[in-house]
């Protein structure tokens, strides 16, 4: 197994499938802390929402990371053992698949509230063969915020549901100096507290530069989450 694409200190996303036949999973942040041999590595105890996850021996995992070329890669692994690495709880995992580039549909969704605005777009204006966005100079924009975002989709807080298939032009403020724009198609509207809805969408158009900016933003947020919970020695 080739571990040349892995480096000590690499930030990781760990997905633990609910069952071997299920598409659903729990996602955690971690970090590569040692490369033992060409098929075994050691990772810091995964963390989510401030809580560390103990990994049972034999547990199946999917491990995601960004390489030096900013490609989003993943591999399958099995938990081999547990040990202490200084002050850090560590787990040795055995890599059981090739390291492959992630298809965008597999991307991790970051739970975060980002300020954004959106406009409903006439589907007839969308040309899937063109990289250009439709002319929306006369569109009416509405302010809202995200519930989560990934490299292939987004969910918004809205006051009313939207019909599946509706297309939105969305401008998202990732931070003070960075914005991205996407075209997204509604997949579902879920009623939340009171008369509020969470509307889930997948991207149908995003420029490559904006996708790179978004991917870096998501990983930066995960690094912050992990760093805040790691001992100072490993920050």
Automatic annotation (TrEMBL):
UniProt keyword Metal-binding, yes or no: no
Keywords (A to Z) from UniProt: Cell projection, Cilium, Flagellum
Occurrences of domain Type III secretion system flagellar brake protein YcgR PilZN (ranges): 7-87
Gene3D superfamilies (alphabetical): predicted glycosyltransferase like domains
PilZ domain mapped to chain residues: 103-220
GO molecular function terms noted in the UniProt entry: cyclic-di-GMP binding
Pfam families the record matches: PilZ, PilZNR
InterPro entries, per the entry: PilZ_domain, T3SS_YcgR_PilZN
Keyword Cell cycle set for record: no
Name of the protein in its database record: Flagellar brake protein
